[in-house]
Structure formats: structure tokens, C-alpha cells
Design a protein that fits this description.
The structure is a single chain. The chain is an alpha+beta fold and 289 residues long. It is built from ten helices and nine strands. Strands 1, 2, 3, 4, 5, 6, 7, 8 and 9 form a nine-stranded antiparallel β-sheet that branches. Strand 3 and strand 4 form a beta hairpin. Helix 1 packs across helix 2, helix 2 crosses helix 3 and helix 5 packs across helix 6. The longest helix is centred in the first third of the chain and has 18 residues. The protein is elongated and about 70 Å long.
């Protein structure tokens, strides 16, 4: 699926491609393809296309007599100024300097994918039909790397008492486990992340906290086990589960991701509170034939 999309991008690198066209080449919906691509590569589709174009532009300038304005137009920039700004941001030098030669330029190579045999470790999965609900908690904008930004955010609100305050507002024990909600996914790769729990009294107000509406959806639910909260390795297992979902399950499944919040639900496994179960909930639908 991703290979077909990369092939399409490379064939049309000088054209005005749309995200719908690229996703179609991958036999996927636009939304699912964008989530899959970002989860597996760490960058967005638009960032990949931009970096590939600027790499090819640098090669053309350094190895030939093409004019800067012609190269700018060839790779989708409406003006030499816009091209020069993007070029310098990536390569650290201006297009004119690159044309003169004897400067260091960055290369962003074409993505390639290797087929690997997986599935040696089973994934615990179930399908769930949810009902509409509301959750409340503290949220943050995740702009780049969720695997580093989210743990930093969670540790901060744990230490400053925010998590205890949320539990108190919801009538729960101060050390009760909250859930994580990924929502408001944007094309540039950002998202919002909320730590909270479901509201029992929907008419109650929660000043200073964010309320999130959860629609009725079909969820694919995957299970992971985590160590105690004080363990430095907390979050490593759930990170592996997220990766396996996109790298192993989705490519071979008859489902695709749809718009809506993704959830991480946490449960203590025993009264000693030394280990917890984390479930990853992803909204899905059957792929169209």
C-alpha cells in the first residue's frame, strides 16, 4: 500500500498532486492513509513531498546550468522568494549559493519498504460498538513527536497535582488512572491529547478543564500491559502496540481508520497497583470493495 503511494509520488513529483490522488494509489481513504503514513514514517505526506522536491531541486542546481526561477517553478513554487526561503530552511544555503557549487547540501532519499515476516507475537484484539459519551480532562497540543511529548505532558500534570484535581472533580480516588484521548488530527501532523475520564453527570460544569464529545463508533481495541507508574519504562509497551497496529494489523486487515478520537484506556490489574492494562481504541470501518 505505501509502496504504491511512494511510486505515485515519485512519478508525479513535478505535478500538483492532491492527497486524494495519492491515497487512491494506496487503495486507501485519504484520512486512513495520512494517519498510516505519519505513524510509520514519523513525518507527514506533505513534508515528504516537500523534502523530496527540495532534494531534487538541489541536485538540479548543483549539477547543471538551470536557472533558479525555472527550478522553483518546476517543483511547485510560485516565486523565487518562496523557493529560496524553503530551500535555505532545508539546506542551510541559498539556491544561488548551491548553484555556485562547493557547498554542503542535504539529501532526503526516496522512501523504501522491506517486506518482513511478522506475527510471531499475537495481538489481543476485539471489536467494540461504542455509544456517545463525554469525557473531561486536561489537554495539550502535540506538534511533533507524540512518543516524547505525551509522556512529558503526563509527568508534568501528575507532579503538579492536575491529575489528582481531575479525579476529585469526577468523584474518583486521587490516584485513579485517567485515559488518554488523541483527537483533532491535522494534515501537518499535529493533534490534541487529553488526559481525563468519562463524565457521569453531563450537566455538571468543570471550570478550567476541556470537555470532549465521543461519537458512537466502531472501535478496534488492542491490549497492552504496562508496569507501575513510577517505572522509568512506562509507556514503552503501549508505544510498541501503536507501531504494530499500523505496521502489522492495518496492512493485512479489512478495516481502515476513520475520523474520530483514538483512546488509550488504563486499568489496574490488581489492588497493589504495580501493573496496568492499557487498551488502544482506534475508530475503524470496513474497507470499501
Amino acid at each position: 500500500m505505501l509502496k504504491q503511494a511512494i511510486d505515485y509520488v515519485e512519478r508525479h513529483i513535478e505535478s500538483n498532486m492532491t492527497m486524494d490522488e495519492i491515497a487512491k494509489a494506496a487503495m486507501s481513504s485519504k484520512y486512513h492513509f495520512q494517519r498510516m503514513f505519519h505513524a510509520l514514517t514519523g513525518f507527514t505526506v506533505s513534508a515528504y513531498i516537500r523534502n523530496r522536491r527540495l532534494t531534487l531541486a538541489a541536485e538540479a542546481l548543483a549539477g547543471g546550468d538551470a536557472k533558479v526561477i525555472d527550478i522553483a517553478l518546476k517543483y511547485g513554487y510560485e516565486s523565487p522568494e518562496a523557493f529560496a526561503k524553503a530551500f535555505q530552511r532545508m539546506h542551510g544555503v541559498t539556491p544561488t549559493a548551491a548553484k555556485k557549487g562547493n557547498v554542503k547540501l542535504k539529501a532526503f532519499p526516496r522512501l523504501s519498504f522491506q517486506i518482513q515476516i511478522k506475527g510471531d507475537t499475537e495481538m489481543n484484539l476485539r471489536m467494540v460498538e461504542s455509544v456517545p459519551a463525554q469525557v473531561v480532562g486536561k489537554d495539550v497540543l502535540i506538534e511533533h513527536d507524540p512518543y516524547s511529548e505525551i509522556p512529558t505532558f503526563v509527568e508534568r500534570i501528575w507532579r503538579d497535582g492536575t491529575i489528582a484535581a481531575i479525579n476529585k472533580a469526577l468523584g474518583r480516588e486521587s490516584d485513579a488512572l485517567l485515559n488518554g484521548y488523541h483527537y483533532d488530527f491535522r494534515e501537518e501532523g499535529s493533534r490534541r491529547y487529553l488526559m481525563g475520564a468519562q463524565i457521569k453527570e453531563e450537566s455538571k460544569a468543570f471550570p478550567g478543564l476541556t470537555t470532549l464529545q465521543l461519537p458512537a463508533q466502531t472501535y478496534a481495541v488492542f491490549e497492552s500491559r504496562e508496569k507501575a507508574l513510577e517505572d522509568d519504562e512506562l509507556g514503552l509497551e503501549i508505544t510498541k502496540v501503536w507501531h504494530r497496529i499500523y505496521a502489522e494489523w492495518f496492512p493485512s486487515a479489512s478495516f481502515e481508520q476513520v475520523e474520530g478520537p483514538c483512546m488509550e484506556k488504563y486499568y489496574w490489574t490488581d489492588e497493589t497497583k504495580t501493573e496496568s492494562i492499557c487498551e488502544v481504541w482506534i475508530p475503524v470501518r470496513q474497507k470499501a470493495d
